[in-house]
Design brief:
- By secondary structure, this protein is mainly beta.
- The chain has a single domain, classed as Sandwich (Immunoglobulin-like).
- Helices cover about 10% and strands about 45% of the residues.
- It is globular, with a radius of gyration of 16 Å.
- It starts with a strand and ends in a 6-residue tail after the last helix.
- It comes from Jannaschia pohangensis.
């Protein structure tokens, strides 16, 4: 389940460069399995139709981008606005191999990154159909242009030992 704590060729290039100058990647990685809490928010551009608004207090337990399909394991990225940029409307996008009955490959929702704060966006493996191995990419888009993208590789086996070692206190 997705969770969240966007003319001419020359003009288009200038707009993309301007948009990229607004958002920066703070960090990306994996968060050990924890209970999912937070309000459910409508997100019709997702497989589930909603996202969970999570607490900003979560931190990444591992900076790894190879993600095993463990129950309640979360992964994603934290972004922020660059200095001097006011609040910014963005679209958060997650692409992945086909998922669910409809074979969804792109999930998206609108968000606002507030000046002076950070935006945490995660995917958590809560249901069996969500555990789709392959290439996943988290992105922030502004006006349809990607400004930050972070790739992950979801796998059924790789890196499980490292995750279990880092997350032993959270695993039952």
């Amino acid at each position: 389940m997705l969770r969240s704590v966007v003319f001419a060729a020359v003009v288009g290039l200038a707009a993309a460069t301007s948009a990229q100058a607004k958002v920066r990647l703070v960090e990306a990685g994996i968060i050990c399995p924890r209970e999912s809490t937070g309000a459910l928010i409508d997100a019709p551009g997702t497989e589930a139709g909603f996202i969970r608004r999570i607490d900003e207090g979560l931190t990444f337990d591992l900076p790894d981008r190879t993600v095993p399909t463990l129950d309640n394991l979360s992964f994603g990225f934290r972004t922020a606005l660059k200095p001097g940029v006011g609040s910014q409307a963005v679209t958060v996008v997650v692409t992945h191999p086909p998922m669910g009955e409809r074979g969804v490959i792109r999930e998206e929702w609108d968000d606002v990154i507030e000046a002076g704060s950070q935006s945490l966006n995660l995917f958590t493996f809560e249901l069996p159909y969500e555990k789709v191995p392959g290439a996943w990419v988290f992105s922030i888009e502004i006006d349809g242009e990607p400004v930050v993208s972070v790739p992950f590789e979801v796998t059924e086996v790789n890196n499980r030992g490292r995750i279990e070692q880092a997350c032993f206190q959270f695993l039952s």
